[in-house]
Amino acid sequence: MAKRLQILFPGTVHVLDLGLGQEDDHAVWNYATAYSLHILTKDSDFVHLVHLKGFPPKVIRLNTGNVTTLYIEALLIKEQATIMQFLQSPDHGLLLLY
Questions:
Q1: Which residue, among 61, 49, 53, has the nearest Cα to 98 in the 3D structure?
Q2: 42 CB contacts (<8 Å, ≥6 apart)?
Q3: Residue-level pLDDT at 96
Q4: Could you tell me the pTM of the whole model?
Q5: Distances from the Cα of 23 to the Cαs of 26, 61, 94, in angstroms?
Q6: Which residues contact 87 (CB under 8 A, 6 or more apart)?
Q7: What share of the chain is helix, strand, coil (3-state, %, to 5)?
Q8: What H or E segment, with its residue span, contains residue 76?
Q9: Rounded CA separation 48/5 (Å)
């Protein structure tokens, strides 16, 4: 999915592509911070981290339950303008998508 999303969101990478597939949330957080990346996740732990540590990195939390990859892609396409506005905002570090 990350490769397909690069058209709309250049620079999109998956944690597996970065060698972080077995790392804990804090390691992913630290990597994203160090390399000016944002986090797209279904994991609520990152919501807690953004509340605890602030941002960057910015976190986009997919609160969609158990859905298909195609559903997630369609949601991200539909919400592209909202996502881009969020990523450019200096005031917000968490975006919840349903």
A1: 61
A2: 61, 62, 63, 64
A3: 98
A4: 0.94
A5: 8, 19, 22
A6: 38, 58
A7: 45, 10, 40
A8: helix 69-78
A9: 26
Tokens of 41: 């996740």
* Under 8 Å between Cβ of 59 and 28: no
Residue type, 77: I
Helix (H) or strand (E) holding 95: strand 94-97
Q: Which residue is it, tokens 């990195």?
A: 57
Domain boundaries, the chain: 2-97
| Joined tokens for residue 16 | 């597996």
pLDDT tens string 4-63: 899 999 999 999 999 999 999 999 999 999 999 999 999 999 999 999 999 999 999 999
Residues belonging to the chain: 98
Which amino acid type is present at position 8?
A: L
Instruction: Please choose, from the candidates 81, 71, 76, the residue with its C-alpha nearest in 3D space to the C-alpha of residue 60.
Output: 76
